Amino acid sequence: MMPRGSLGHHRSLGPAHQSPHHLPNNRRLTCEQPHPPGGGSPQPQKRQQRRQQRRQQRRQRQQDNDITFTIHTDPGHGWIVVPLTIIAELGIAKYISSYSYTDGSNGYLEEDCDAWVFVRAFEKAHGARPDFVVKFKENTPIRNLPRF
To answer: 3-class SS at 69?
Structure first.
């Protein structure tokens, strides 16, 4: 008899560590499905092709998006200036709160909620986030405009 701990000793580690032949319902872990030439399964290749196509589409949409929006800020708040025609095209006017302002041709969408309604809608329509330029003023006249 071999001493305990030697190569000849077999100790069961329980069902989780048993060989594939001991799986429930006589299921076996096998690798019987052939791989395509070049190795790897076909699924990752298809996923990679779809990702590349989406990246190319996104880049094209970003190039088509030549509009830059301005974010006006003061010490207490900020607003994205968006033409009312774009707000109408995106169909988001009904979601803009009274915390935003308008001058009749542009909407000044407050930064906390309304700006994100616009950004999400723009991203969904164009496949990319809009570009922004930030301008700071100590006393902005936006607060004196009529509410949206």
So the answer is: strand
CA distance 20 to 42: 26
Give every CB contact of residue 65 below 8 A, 6+ residues apart in sequence. 126, 128, 130, 131
Using CA atoms, how far apart are residues 68 and 107, in angstroms rounded to an integer? 15
* Residue type present at position 70: T
pLDDT in tens, 89-104: 999 999 999 999 999 9
Concatenate the DSSP letters of all residues of 11-32 into one string. Answer: ----GGGS-GGGSGGG------
> What is the pTM assigned to this prediction?
0.56
Helix, strand or coil, per DSSP, at residue 70: strand
